Fold these 2 entries.
Entry 1:
Amino acid sequence: MIKVGDQLPATTLMEYIEVEGNGCSMGPNAVDVHKAAAGKTIALFAVPGAFTPTCSNQHVPGYVAQADALKAAGVDEIWCLSVNDAFVMGAWARDQKTANKVRMLADGDAAFAKATGLTLDLNGKGLGLRSNRYSMLVKDGKVASLNVEAPGKFEVSDAATMLGQLKA
């Protein structure tokens, strides 16, 4: 399992952006993890699935609500990762109103989750291989803190915990 001090894995995530920006930005667009994290402080959190109850009712809304405070505490970007495709993550972003607050990044084939060792096997529940619920503070591509939830829990990966770690 990835640990504090480790480099993020050399993987590619996907992002769907609904609003056209410079060039052809809509997507889905490939996001090279190493390039995207270089020189930045990132509050990254991962969830088992888009549109699932805890993820939609608590996890993402907490980071959206705390986005300004996290950025004031030194975070450049907030990333939400889930083992879903970019189109689902784009629809979830619209539903959760994450624009300009949280980047909703798809780990469609669980490559990031597998590379970090933070997978969650939900095959018996019809969900397949997913990401565990966790958060990490990433500085210039290296893990500065890591908060992995126990199965079925939501106690240490929330935005308030991340904000507290940033202020400590």
Entry 2:
Amino acid sequence: MAGEGVDMSTGTPLAGPRTGFNPGVPAVDSAEPCGHPDAVRATARIRATYNGRVTTLPQLSSDGPFHLRRMRTSEKAATVGIIGAMSAPLGGDRLALDITAEDRAELDVTTAAATLALRGPTTAPATYHVRLTAGEHARLRWLPQPLISAAGSNLHQTYTVNLASTSRLLLREEQILGRAGEEPGHLVTRIRVHRAGRPLLDQRTAYGDPAPGWDGPAVLAGHRAVGQLLLVGPELDDGRPPILLREGAEDGCAVLAPLAGGPALLATAVAPTSSALRELLDEALRHAFGG
């Protein structure tokens, strides 16, 4: 499987040389060696601004596996779709997305298809860093398709989020641990969120060997799909007690709880399949807004 990948936009297996790196765009962690000559280092950037009527996109810089496409807008919001232009992430890759919604801008970002982490030409971990920034009265929604951790892969994914006191955020992440009939690779994720310069959330999770206890009854209890939904905004009611959704159900369960230092709500869900996971997160979103 070394050197084999998948097109994130179609799910089609890819093979052969990996091309598409744009040296004109600064790469992430430029001082860090890739560890293998075939590893990719790339940073794509999105910047949204509000011109008094609608949100515009003065910066849309594709790079490496990330092809950024303007989508049809609705009202004053802008939408960007990320299409996979090559196989990634593979072991040793250094990938980053830098996404900014400036004051009063409204930006939605999604991906065309699931992202598949695969074993690469080196055992070194791939890194995938998503930086999200929202200014005053801005709204930013990060809604990618699931990340699939395939057997033999090694991926460290991080979110670094910086929010103004009046900005609104909707962040959804979904992870599928292993493809059908296989064990997952090693997946480490971390979410760090600051609001108005103060810490709001700092959470780290690890799945797959050699992480201890990741599949035990206190963590996944045999489920293979896990996800979170983070909501931040001044209109949220963060004084509510936590809500447990579908307790004891075979098709998964979720908890929706307020965060200290909010107004913010965090839903965490586990499920046997990606479709059941999405249903749970959608249900948590309805509860968050009183549905």
